[in-house]
Specification:
With about 300 residues, this protein is mainly β. The chain contains three helices and 18 strands. It has one domain. The strands form seven sheets. It has a four-stranded mixed beta sheet with strand order 11-8-9-12. Strands 2-3-18 form a three-stranded antiparallel beta sheet.
């Protein structure tokens, strides 16, 4: 496993402001406004490089599913999580779950509550990818199947550890920071182009061997809206489902998310890539495909 040896920690004063231009002012919000006449270009803020030649936007919230209704959606807020309700998961459960077995998009009956597990290779671009196969409720609209996709292990690794990003308060390539958002522990991903809202204090580097509590940086829900407007994404530390004990483990301590990458077999068990974080590490890892984890989707720019 590869470890990142520095956390970039972000602190916010009680009052934060962020410049945000209404997307309606730009007829194509995926392209910067380059109109003349002294009008400054619109900075496309919600952009994360996942390779030297590819960029994505990240969904504002984790993927969620209602089995009884057959409905997929993004969580209403970045900091939302189902947690213990995942243990109610069944084909008839009329509620939301947000921990899934790998490749459990529903294609050919591969749901997280069935015994079907996919071990045929990477799911990138296949119907086994949750975003490729499903329409997803995204706020007040529905994004058609194929709008979103699961990032590969290499893409998440590049996003966390290798991409060029903004210099924030004198720290070059500021990429992520542990935080509490609306009382939910997690990790903030800082976009490629980022300008701190007014009142932010300088970032500091912290050794991987030093315990760094999530509460080093605490934001209210309203304060998070400012950071999200500035292009940041927040991944909550929701823990995961233990299949052996039918319980949630490491809730509010460990973040572990699926990638689209299949890594082979270990003792006959299919293994897929994941990434993990907690107060003293961020790293790429692997786990059996039958162990439910959260999913955060992206879409190509």
């Amino acid at each position: 496993m590869r470890k990142k040896f520095y956390f970039l920690m972000l602190a916010v004063a009680l009052t934060m402001t962020a410049c945000h231009k209404d997307p309606a002012d730009n007829p194509n919000p995926d392209v910067n406004d380059t109109t003349g006449g002294g009008t400054p270009a619109l900075v496309d803020k919600n952009v994360f490089s996942v390779s030297p030649s590819r960029q994505v936007r990240l969904a504002d919230g984790n993927l969620q599913f209602n089995p009884a209704a057959g409905q997929w959606r993004f969580a209403p807020h970045a900091y939302d999580g189902v947690k213990a309700d995942n243990l109610n998961c069944s084909a008839t459960y009329d509620g939301w779950i947000d921990c899934f077995r790998w490749a459990s998009s529903g294609y050919e009956g591969h749901f997280t509550y069935t015994n079907l597990v996919y071990t045929g290779g990477d799911i990138d671009g296949t119907q086994y990818d949750w975003g490729v196969y499903n329409d997803i409720q995204n706020g007040d609209k529905i994004d058609p199947a194929g709008t979103w996709r699961t990032l590969s292990r290499d893409e998440w690794e590049y996003l966390f550890f290798d991409r060029s990003a903004s210099t924030v308060s004198g720290v070059a390539d500021a990429r992520f920071a542990l935080a509490m958002v609306a009382n939910q522990p997690g990790i903030i991903l800082i976009p490629d182009v980022f300008e701190m809202p007014a009142g932010m204090v300088p970032l500091r580097e912290t050794s991987i061997n030093e315990i760094v509590p999530f509460a080093t940086n605490v934001y209210s829900a309203d304060e998070w809206e400012n950071l999200q407007q500035a292009g940041c994404a927040f991944l909550p530390a929701l823990g995961c489902v233990s299949v052996s004990t039918n319980s949630m483990v490491s809730v509010d301590y460990l973040g572990c998310y699926w990638t689209s990458t299949f890594l082979g077999f270990d003792g006959g068990m299919g293994i897929a890539g994941q990434f993990l974080f907690n107060p003293n590490m961020v790293e790429m890892g692997q786990v059996g495909v039958g162990f439910p984890r959260p999913v955060r989707l992206g879409r190509n720019i």
